[in-house]
Amino acid sequence: MRLAATLLLFAMALVFAASLYFRDVHPALPWIQAFAEAAMVGGLADWFAVTALFRHPLGLPIPHTAIIPANKDRIGDSLAVFLRDNFLTPAIVARRLEEVDIAGAAARWLLADRTPAPGRKRGWGPLIARLIEALDQRVIGDLVREAATEKLRGVQLSPIVADAIDTTIDKRRHEPLIDSAIAWGAGMLDDQESTIRGMVAERTNWFLKLVAVDEQVSSSLIKGVRKLLVEMASDPQHPLRLRITEGLRTYAFDLRHFPDSQSRIEGFKEDLIGNPAMAHWLEGLWDSARTGLVASLTNPDAIAPGKLAVAMKALGTRLEADAPLRAAINLHLRRAAVGLVNDYGDEIVSLVSTTVRGWDASTVTEKLETAVGRDLQFIRINGTVIGGLVGLAIHAATVLL
Q1: How many CA atoms lie within 13 Å of 310's alpha carbon, on the beta-carbon side?
Q2: Residue range 116-163, pLDDT digits in tens
Q3: Which residue among 99, 104, 190, 390 is least crowded, i.e. fewest CB within 10 A of its CB?
Q4: At CA 32, angle to CA 376 and CA 387, rounded to 5?
Q5: How far apart (Å, rounded) are the C-alpha atoms in residues 355 and 371?
């Protein structure tokens, strides 16, 4: 467009010269001369104005020219202030996000069909995978471990164990455990029969041994224990089994209401968290998650064909159907966005201002001229045409007067 505007200006100059030379040949030529003369004036004036924005016209240091290079720092500061006042204030961000259904948009995105067309690129997945790989894995792993550890420390383990015990008893899932304990006891009784007889013999004096009292006591003891175990195994309502169940119920009650019982469970939790094996497992959480995520983003079929798509569809369906969940997610996202603007808005504004200040004058000029240069050349063309029309009007008024 710059070439077209310049050629139009030269064309007006040629028309003016020709009409001036052949002025007396035809009565219409003075009108053409007036048009061309005014068009040149308008075109030159607009060329000067457009050029003065970005550089000195003809390289001459005329005052108030090269406006943008001379004021680039002020332009950067003004742009930063404009962003801060119109976009990066918590009130404005909160107001603009009130009507934005971010969770709904995420649901629609998850439910959308993403079957790639032949030859089509795979979208953002590989790029996101590269960004994940570019993160400092050690730092992220430490953050995940610390976050998981703090989360575990914040969880009250006592009521969870109590609920697990009650649920196990209510669904009678503790009965197989008791049966296993009875079977284990019967096996141990058979294996340790000689040991039991020896312990009884050691505690029996020589006189009673003469009449085989130790053998009778040992046999009676072993027989009685074996009979008890058989009765417990065959009778689900055996009093001792019921006492075990009652003891479990009592322990669950103690875990909910007595600090001593709770402190023992919480102490076990702290020991578990402090265990090096547990720390190593927590450190591996990020590695496992990162490996799976990168594999799914770069090649979803490498994990399980269709599994990722099914999970995305399920999440999208849940979000679409659950309005309270969407509202909660939108609320948290709005709060997060407002918090980011409140905490980092000034840094973002400062980044814009500092970036513009860091550019040299030629960079600023090139970027702005590339962005609006085409429209500015239309201004030159319009100025040439409108200037010519104004010249015609002035010439007409002069002739009439």
Answers
A1: 6
A2: 545 444 555 666 667 666 666 677 777 777 878 888 888 888 888 889
A3: 99
A4: 25
A5: 18
Give the three-class secondary structure for 285.
Answer: helix
CA nearest to 371, candidates 47, 27, 54, 31: 54
pLDDT at 116: 52
Q: How far apart are CA 168 and CA 114, in angstroms?
A: 44
Q: Would you list the DSSP string of 37-71?
A: HHHHHHHHHHHHHHHHHHS-GGG---TT-SHHHHT
What's the residue count for the chain? 401
Q: How many CB atoms lie within 10 A of CB 212?
A: 12
State pTM to two decimals. Answer: 0.40
Q: Are 110 and 308 in contact (CB under 8 A)?
A: no
| pLDDT, position 395 | 80
DSSP letters, 188-217, are HHHHTHHHHHHHHHHTS-HHHHHTTHHHHH
CB atoms within 10 A of CB 252: 22
Distance CA(343)–CA(350), nearest Å, equals: 13
| Start-to-end CA span in the chain (Å) | 39
How many whole angstroms separate alpha carbon 334 and alpha carbon 338? 6
Look at 193 and 163; give whichever has higher pLDDT. 163
pLDDT tens readout for residues 293-305: 677 666 655 544 4
307-314 CB contacts, 8 Å cutoff, 24+ apart? 309/114, 312/110, 313/110, 313/111
Are 345 and 88 a contacting pair, CB within 8 Å? Answer: yes
Distance CA 76, CA 344 (A): 18
The answer to whether the beta carbons of residues 21 and 4 sit under 8 Å apart is no
Contact yes or no for 336/130 (Cβ under 8 A): no
- Cα 200 to Cα 202: distance, rounded to the nearest angstrom: 5
pLDDT of residue 209: 55
Q: How far is C-alpha 209 from the chain's CA centre? A: 81
pLDDT in tens, 166-175: 898 888 888 8
